[in-house]
Amino acid sequence: MTEQRGGSGLASVLRIQGVLVAIALSAGLAIALVHEWTRPMVMAQRGGLLGDAALEVMPGAASYRIYVRSADGGLRPMGDDDTPELFIGLDEGGHIVGAAVVGSGMGYADVIQLVYGVDPAAGRLTGMRVVASRETPGLGSVIVDDKDWVDTFTRIHLPFDGEQNLRNLRVRSNANHEQGEVDAISGATVSVVSVTRIISSSLADWLPILKAEFDELSGGDRG
Amino acid sequence: MADAGMISEREDGVERLRLGFWRENPILVQALGMCPVLAVSNTGVNALTMSLATTFVLLSSAIVISTIRGIIPRQVRLACFVLVIATFVTLTDMAVEAFALELHQALGAFLPLIVVNCMILSRIEIMASRQPISVAALDAIGMGAGFMLGLVTLGSLRELLGRGTLFGAQVMPDRFEPWQVMQLPGGGFFTLAALVIGFTLLDRSLKRWREVPA
Predict the structure, then answer these.
(1) Are A88 and A177 in contact (CB under 8 A)?
(2) Who contacts A45 (Cβ-Cβ below 8 Å, separation ≥6)?
(3) How far apart, in whole angstroms, are the C-alpha atoms of residue A59 and residue A55?
(4) pLDDT tens digits, residue range B37-87?
(5) Residue A41: how many CB atoms within 10 A of its CB?
(6) In this complex, do B94 and A30 lie within 8 Å of one another by their Cβ atoms?
(7) Nearest-CA distance from B98 to chain A in Å?
(8) Cβ of residue B90 closer than 8 Å to a chain A Cβ
(9) Which of A52, A183, A222, B76: disulfide with A175, CB 3.0–4.6 Å?
(10) Which residues form the domain of A56?
């Protein structure tokens, strides 16, 4: 009897696990199939959104050229299979007026993707727009909704130390924008710090490239 | 093998459809799923999209759960329900993101949060896990339609008074000054309270009218 009960208990556990595994596998398969089907459409729409955001953060830009980093660390024009990394803004006459970099990183709830404008010659940011985020509505979502806070990114100067090495942007209440400080927002600390961290780490990668290549790009094809 | 604890008397599907839409309306009577109701009812389009997404998740989950209800062990039924609901929520989220990115951004985190909408879990537990597919589907359609009735009415009223538009089209005269409060959370609460009062009075009037002998 004991062996029978033991056998029956094991069968019950196996049945429970079997059902859960079968449902989970079916769910995973359905999600994977739909993800593969919708991903190209999402990426195409995101590309359009990134371009619109890039034009907003590059004052005076009427069009742009899109670049990605090449294997040797330089820049090359974006190919069909690439995702946008750098927008070079051009005015009506085709002259370069600024650059916008795509950055992403973890926020409070999910990945935040943003575009920020930078003027490498003047050493300052020219704007920032969050393109994708799932921050808490009413709290972290202020990184999208709070227009005054978003507009402060047009006034933030890049902070350099005495040896002209780029320092990280910092979050402060009563921020001094000329010292590379970003205004803190009560209730959205993690989201604000995430945006600041994403821009700082992206700038560390991109600023040397932009400084080295900006003049060369000025002589390139018009977009 | 069907679990004895999950077998119930068969309900009338058409009656469930009618009850879900009116007498047991999930928003105006049962006050279920209030978080997304108040959060995304600032415009008619947001409200319609959210209610369509919720109805799709409820109907799909009800059909799947009702189909496999015989093999779901009672001990892990809630885990199975949440797994199925979460799958359909994820599929809906990806589809809305692919076809309407702006709407997806407007709805924000509330689209994935359909997974914890208590209306869906309660209908799955009460109906889909105990009734045949036809009854479960009709119940889901009734509840979804009731959810849509409440949410779209709320969203349309808030948009009309808060923006002067209806589904994005200007309908109020130019001299109309929009009531900003209707677009704020407080406006959502006031409008919902007014709707519940109006719905209750209308329901009572209809009852009295039916009871009057010919």
Answers:
(1) no
(2) B98, B101
(3) 7
(4) 888 888 899 899 999 999 999 999 999 999 999 999 988 999 999 999 999
(5) 15
(6) no
(7) 5
(8) yes
(9) A183
(10) 44-218
Q: HSE of B111 in the Cβ direction (CA atoms, 13 Å)? A: 26
Cβ within 8 Å, pair A141-B101: no
Average pLDDT of span A3-9? 60
Residue B104 pLDDT grade (very low, low, confident, very high; cuts 50, 70, 90): confident
As a whole number of angstroms, the distance between CA A37 and CA B113 comes to 23
A181 — pLDDT class (breaks 50, 70, 90): very high
Q: How far apart are CA B155 and CA B188, in angstroms?
A: 9
Give how far Cα B155 sits from Cα of B93, B166, B198, Å. Answer: 21, 9, 16
pLDDT value of position B214: 55
Say whether pTM exceeds 0.80: no
Strands B169-170 and A63-69 turn out to be: unpaired
Q: Which residue has the tokens 């992206």?
A: A202
Q: Please tell me the total count of domains within chain A.
A: 1
Residue A68 forms part of a structural domain: yes
ipTM passes above 0.90: no
Q: Is A146 a domain residue?
A: yes
Q: Which of A35, A46, A134 lies closest to B109 in CB terms?
A: A134
> Would residue A26 count as lying in a domain?
no
Per-domain residue ranges of chain B: 12-154
Coil/strand/helix, residue A106: strand
Q: What is the pLDDT of residue A8?
A: 73
**Residue B72 in 3-state DSSP?**
coil
Tens of pLDDT, residue by residue over A44-69, are: 787 788 898 999 999 999 999 899 98
* Residue A157, token pair as written in the block: 């100067």
Q: How far apart are CA B114 and CA B92, in angstroms?
A: 10
